[in-house]
Amino acid sequence: MSETDIELDAEVTEFLERAFEDNYQLLRLEAGRALSPEGKQFARQQVLLYWRKLREIAQSVTDTEVHLTLPNQKTRRGRTYAIEGIVDIVREAGRTVMYDIKSHDADYVRDHKDDYAKQLNVYAHIWQTLRGEPLDETAIIVTDFPRKVAEAMESGDERRIAYALAQWNPLIPMDFSASRVNATVAEFGEVVDAIEEGEYDPPSKEHLDKRQGATQQRFATAVCRNCDARFSCVSYRQWALGSTSHVEKAVRQYFGDAGPDEDLEDWRAANLEATPDVKELLQDFEQPSTTKAGHP
Known about the structure:
Layout: H1 3-31, H2 37-53, H3 55-60, E1 61-74, E2 80-92, E3 95-102, H4 106-111, H5 113-130, E4 137-142, H6 147-155, H7 158-167, E5 171-174, H8 181-196, H9 205-208, E6 211-212, E7 217-218, H10 219-222, H11 234-241, H12 247-255, H13 261-274, H14 278-285
Parallel strand pairs: 3-4
Antiparallel strand pairs: 1-2, 2-3, 4-5, 6-7
Helix pairs in contact: 1-2, 6-7
């Protein structure tokens, strides 16, 4: 690495540190929640590791947060709608690459590439046909942090960390085909019609129990657990309660499902640290003293 690269790396790292702190404080105010010191440090390291892992792409991006719109589409039932998306574009050495960023698990994306390719096909169509721009490749960048990398970082073992980072690949190339665009747009239209007419039938309980891809997580764990509407979903309720005879235990587990244990522990630790001490609490409950005229 040259002296120029080292200076640039230090400059970018300093910028990322500032940006991380600013965003953290903003999100803390908006959400009313804090991270534990350990959780905050882990999140900071994650940001820096992404920069180092995808540095070449980050430095090559020529168009960031490009808004793509496919307007005036018609559903099968006659409704007008538009498809919109945001991508990043890299133009380098005569090639143009489109990147779509997803906060999903990399193994899940790789096992369901066809589903993700549909969306990128539409974006590629907008870029090439409506904008008249060249495009050579499309890819997805996943931001979900692999558990193996997290565990390696927690161990503090440099060799284990180096190995985990070498195995980690958040960049997933995707094939795109112009011939599939019309079918994908029609699928979007079906979804629009279903939403407008209140058709919200969830997948069956049996589908929720199916294991997904390389991680072998059940659909309910990988997908439903990230859905805020899961507690009012009949299928999820049936899946969570199951047919177990230990109904009380199942009910408590179902309604107490607030996320992974790691997130809950960070939440507890952060709230303990943010809790005022006894003296501060007493001051909050003390009544302000009053004085009578003539008596200080």
